[in-house]
Amino acid sequence: MKNISVIGSGFSGLSAACFLAKEGHKVSVFEKNQTTGGRARAYTEQGFMFDMGPSWYWMPDIFENFFAQFGKHPSDYYKLVQLDPGFQVIFGKDDVLKVPAGLEDIYELFEQTEKGSAIKLKEFLAEGAFKYRVGMQQLVYKPAFSWLEFASKEVIGGATRLHMFTSMRSYVRRFFKDERLVALMEFPVLFLGAMADKIPALYSLMNYAAFSLGTWYPMGGMAEITKAMTSLADSLGVEINTGCDVKTINVQAGKVYKLETSRGTYNSEGLIATGDYHHMEQHLLQKEFRTYDEVYWNKKTMAPSCLVFYVGVNKRINKLIHHNLFFDASFDDHARAIYKDPHWPEDPLFYVCCPSKTDDSVVPEGMENLFLLVPVAPDMEDTPEIRERYFNIIIKRMESYCNEPLMPNIIYKKSYCINDFKDDYYAYKGNAYGLANTLNQTAVLKPSLRNKKVKNMLYAGQLTVPGPGVPPALISGQLAASQLLNYLNQNR
Ligand SMILES: Cc1cc2nc3c(=O)[nH]c(=O)nc-3n(C[C@H](O)[C@H](O)[C@H](O)COP(=O)(O)OP(=O)(O)OC[C@H]3O[C@@H](n4cnc5c(N)ncnc54)[C@H](O)[C@@H]3O)c2cc1C
Predict the structure, then answer these.
(1) Strand, helix or coil for residue 273
(2) Residue 162: which residues within 8 A CB-CB, separation 6 or more?
(3) Alpha helices, H only, 23-147
(4) Residue 326 near residue 349 (C-beta atoms within 8 A)
(5) Gap from CA of 144 to ligand 1 centroid (Å)
(6) Which among 224, 240, 287, 353 counts the fewest CB atoms within 10 Å?
């Protein structure tokens, strides 16, 4: 039994802590914020419960898989409901695609939008099912230390079907011509932090996840998931220290032996660092123990940051559903403002989550709970004036679509942007979603799970493998824990 430390209590940190504790180690989690959950924290104000980060629950099998390894099921902790429609994409006031939950209904929607596209979608999703199966079984659960890990018969034999070297943009356009269907199919890769022309079409597995596996919601909010993981960690004997900022990782003879924190010094015989990778290396470790330097980080393509508003409205809003994508402006112009020539977008696309459409517990009676998100380039100027300008733009566009005034009914509002990501999570360049999943930042080409100079130290989370997003963060914690366990077993 060793004293193991985990820095960070987001999905990856909690996941790593659970796997290590299950093997009998004494695990301590150190979290600088006052509550667990990391980017998936929540807060309540004036009767509104706001999830601060993720709002899309996709790939339910990954969550089931996680809990199953502890003899549990998500339903032991929270109630999942499938959203129907899953989401809507708003292209204009009277031009909206509502994506239903059932596949047959989705085929019909496609056929109505572009003749002949239902059959194309069937082909697309069949390919997506193959990619999803191979991806989940043979790609994402690998630590990615060497390309050889991926050299299975199915990966090599199916290489052309995995479309690693085809861009998502050209792949989608082989199937669909209608620009709205193209946007609908390209939207899930926005989660991966790059434009569709830079994302390998392997990630069309996300369309399969969205359409075939469904869009779900845990009643009570997304924070129910990290609450469940915190409770699981607790039951496994993990000690969770919130409000505890790790300041220095001390290394001796090539091994971590001590952490200095805002609340004292802790001995450690193994470490998984799940806070922002850049911060863990550049600010907590002495130079000689860092795997990468500033030049390396500066060359990396970060996933976007975002401007978020948590808003309480004192009436119900008819035309919104749970997930609403406002694509009523140029997708390419906005993408350019994020990835090519970073600037605040003139005419932003944005996303509105309205969980009160599904869940009465997140809102006072008769009101609406809104989470508004504009993706923006990382590390830009972030001032109260800029935030306010965008708030006004978004609310005006929502008023126009919803055909009713909203501004006079807003009774609560809080903004969150680049500077908050830096302050709250030490996020490199104020990133929200970590590192973009572009081809040259995939698998072995990502910052490694392993610290190459400190034997008993690993990293996990959205800046390392397998990548950004809730399901990958869960998997990342598991991968790092299993590597640390291997090391500890070999060096008893
Ligand atoms: C606004 C927003 C919306 C999103 N929407 C979705 C979505 O809908 N679906 C989806 O799948 N993904 C979504 N994501 C991405 C997803 O939330 C993240 O990829 C995931 O939560 C990252 O988990 P993590 O464990 O890697 O990092 P984090 O959650 O950031 O956890 C790292 C933790 O480490 C702590 N820490 C850092 N430094 C220190 C230190 N020195 N000492 C102590 N503690 C430290 C931080 O406080 C933090 O709690 C969203 C993200 C954001 C920000």
Answers:
(1) strand
(2) 131, 134, 135, 155, 202
(3) 60-68, 103-113, 117-134
(4) yes
(5) 21
(6) 287
- Give alpha helix (H) positions in 114-178: 117-134, 153-157, 159-162, 168-175
Going by CA atoms, what residue is nearest to atom 37 of ligand 1?
275
For residue 423, CA distances in Å to 202, 300, 323, 338, 428 come to 35, 21, 28, 21, 10
What's the mean pLDDT when you consider all of the chain?
Answer: 95
CATH (residue range 102-213): 1.10.405
Distance CA(145)–CA(134), nearest Å, equals 19
Beta-carbon count within 10 A of 449 CB: 23
Residue 271 has pLDDT above 80, yes or no: yes
In sequence order, what are the residues at sequence separation of 6 or more whose Cβ sits closer than 8 angstroms to the Cβ of residue 133? Answer: none
For 129-159, what is each residue's pLDDT tens digit? 999 999 888 889 999 999 888 888 888 877 7
Residue 40 Cα to ligand 1 midpoint, Å, equals 6
Residue nearest to atom 16 of ligand 1 (CA): 469
Q: Hey, where are the domains in the chain?
A: 3-79+220-300+436-490, 102-213, 301-425
Q: State whether the beta carbon of 338 lies less than 6 angstroms from ligand 1.
A: no
CATH topology of domain 3-79+220-300+436-490: FAD/NAD(P)-binding domain (3.50.50)
Backbone angles phi, psi at 218, to 5 degrees: -85, 120
Q: Distance (Å, rounded) from C-alpha 406 to C-alpha 451?
A: 50
pLDDT of 7-39, one tens digit each? Answer: 999 999 999 999 999 999 999 999 999 999 999
Residue spans of beta strands (DSSP E) within 349-402 = 350-353, 368-376
Q: Which two tokens stand for residue 328?
A: 């009523």
- How far apart CA 138 and CA 249 sit, in angstroms, is 34
How far apart (Å, rounded) are the C-alpha atoms in residues 148 and 342? 37
Which residues partner with 6 through β-bridges? Answer: 29, 272
Q: Is 395 in the pocket of ligand 1 (CB under 6 A)?
A: no
Domains 3-79+220-300+436-490 and 102-213 share a fold: no
CB of 462 closer than 6 angstroms to any ligand 1 atom: yes
